Amino acid sequence: MATFLFNDIIFGPVKSRRLGVSLGVNLLPEDYKYCTYNCLYCECGWTLDSKTKVKLHTSKDIQQALEQQLIQMKAKGKAPDNITFAGNGEPTLHPDFASIIDDTIALRNHYFPKALISVLSNATQIHKPKIIAALNKVDQNILKLDSAIDDTYSLINQPKTSMTVSTLVQRLKVFKDNLSIQTLFIRGNYQGKHFDNTTEEEVSKWLNLIKEINPKNVMIYPIARDTPLADLEKIESSTLQAIGKRVKDAGIKVYIYD
Ligand code: SF4
User: Which domains does the chain have, with CATH numbers?
Assistant: First the structure.
């Protein structure tokens, strides 16, 4: 199916379901996705072979591109609600991620002090102290957890290194409550295996982990765009609403983007 890549460092501003007027920052290459996961639903397509030589923009290029865009928005009187790190893969893989966040905070404070800085991350780099420190500085530290069950997690997210849900959860807890959890609910078939992270077993185990992690809030959503795998089913609104109600009943704020 027709997935897409962001073709520049800065994209938008776009109107986002989750983030309002969002100015996107892509720290990854423009011609392929660079990620530690290979999610079956990734709107950027499949992750390439890890042997591909990765060429990234320097932190200076990124700072200049962002500043230029902020100056233009200021001149037009258009304020972003969010400066959002997302793009063609996992933003925390950029070796200068921490200093890029510092630069972005300085630019935000200068041009649009009310704008939030958000990072959408798959949480695979949060064992690194520099990444933890950087994510603790942003306004919205949004980290992925798609299943509490290892087999489902491995199938949906296809991590490139061996990782278990339990390790991931221990790492997520380091942020205390300074994080949001994002979960994409989905069902489908891949390589002869069926998966569905909306079953009772999946949702109850996932909810137990959410309570343990104790995030500021939880964002749940279905697929919204084209995906690399065709055999995927968009989860119906009623199911997402029912899952969201269980999160709310547990005393945790939830946003449902159905
Ligand atoms: S973590 Fe994000 S960028 Fe990476 S494969 Fe999954 S959806 Fe795509």
Answer: 10-256 (3.20.20.70)
